[in-house]
Structure prediction request, 157 residues.
Amino acid sequence: MPRHLYKKRLIKPDSLYKSYEVAKLINYIMKDGKKAVAKKIVYSVFEKFKKQGNDPLKILNQAIQNVAPRFEVKPRRLGGASYLVPIEVRKERKLQLSLKWIIEAARKKPNKQYHTFIDKLFIELTEAANNQGEAIAKKMQTEKLAEANKAFAHLKW
Prediction:
């Protein structure tokens, strides 16, 4: 547990869509401080959605909503044994987990089939919005583990 509380950083909404979720997505995709590259990737994916006649913000929000887990497990040490205690996931953590899982699933896709990360992210967001794909499987796995350890729910601290 931290010795003192940390001041939470305020993330400004992105400049084009005025959305907090899009700003977070850009920040999670960013590598080595190259925010312009991350913005280009995200905005290219959103342009693909627009060309199909879809609203990119609706698709992103639907994907986040579908991938966000309700419960996760945290290890709790008690009397020499370690128990996985299911806990409810906070709103901020739901957003973080869902975006991380979507990006992770997009990065895992093979390069032979999808040539650029833009294509991979586009496919993964579409699948997540339709309740399919690797990120949804990760959510199911997490919630299944929490369900299996429901007997230890009374060990919350």
Summary: The longest strand covers residues 71-78. Residues 20-152 form a domain with the Ribosomal Protein S7 fold (CATH 1.10.455.10). Strands lie at 71-78, 81-88. Helices lie at 20-29, 35-51, 56-67, 91-108, 117-129, 134-148.
